[in-house]
From TrEMBL:
It comes from the Eukaryota. GO terms for molecular function: peptidyl-prolyl cis-trans isomerase activity. Residues 53-62 have a biased composition (Basic residues). Residues 127-215 form the PPIase FKBP-type domain. It catalyses: [protein]-peptidylproline (omega=180) = [protein]-peptidylproline (omega=0). Residues 14-41 have a biased composition (Basic and acidic residues). SUPFAM superfamilies: FKBP-like. This is peptidylprolyl isomerase. Gene3D superfamilies: 3.10.50.40. Transmembrane segments: none annotated. Residues 1-10 have a biased composition (Acidic residues). Its EC number is 5.2.1.8. Residues 1-99 are annotated as: Disordered.
């Protein structure tokens, strides 16, 4: 073999040696990239599977679609809080309106407005003759002891002691058509005396009264 041929063969071997490591390195780099990207989410969370990713996306989508979750852009509470507040407001208003129709006196007398008559109806004042319909019950057990419903209205002169004190005070100021509930303590009712075998001594009484006429 000639020296020139030896030199050429050696040059070819050297060239092969240079090419082979480069190809192996390229293959190794490709394998390494494939290995590193397995199990990696596009959001950069390593080790998260595709099923976990789908669940997360569904959860985020649900939060966006649900108007009752999270906060508004200005950081205020969402519609859940507003709805709760709107639900509470009528209760407070109703309670305040109800209390405005109830008067409680120091001696225990309670006057509750049940219904309003005509705004221009004649008003009962001391000295007037008034006609009423009523139902009387014991507060203790709700037992009915007297009523004139379905009968002729009861007539008396207001404010002169013809009836118990609870009535003189409770009917005063009513307009024709008004209905009131009077809760009357013993001191403004029949006191410590029993009445007709139906009202025990020291009884609290409840009367529902409707003013029929004033003259």
């Amino acid at each position: 073999m000639k020296t020139d041929e030896i030199d050429n063969d050696q040059a070819n071997e050297i060239a092969k040696d240079k090419i082979q490591p480069e190809e192996v390195t390229k293959q190794d780099f490709s394998d390494q990239n494939n290995h590193d990207t397995r199990g990696m989410d596009v959001d950069g969370v390593p080790g998260e599977s595709s099923s976990d990713k789908k669940r997360k996306k569904k959860k985020n989508k649900k939060k966006i679609q649900d108007p009752g979750v999270g906060e508004n852009k200005d950081g205020t509470a969402t519609s859940v809080g507003n709805e709760t507040q709107s639900l509470l407001e009528p209760v407070e208003k109703e309670s305040a309106a109800k209390s405005s129709h109830i008067r409680t006196f120091a001696n225990g007398l309670v006057i509750e407005e049940l219904a309003m008559g005509k705004p221009d109806g004649k008003r009962a004042s001391p000295g007037n003759r008034v006609s009423v319909r009523y139902i009387g019950k014991l507060q203790k057990n709700g037992k009915l002891f007297d009523s004139n419903v379905g009968r002729k209205p009861f007539e008396f002169r207001l404010g002169v002691g013809q009836v118990i004190k609870g009535w003189d005070v409770g009917v005063n100021g009513m307009r024709v058509g008004d209905k009131r509930r009077l809760i009357i303590p013993p001191s403004m009712g029949y006191g410590d005396k029993p009445v007709g075998g139906k009202i025990p001594p020291n009884s609290w009484l409840v009367f529902d009264v409707e003013l029929v006429n004033v003259r």
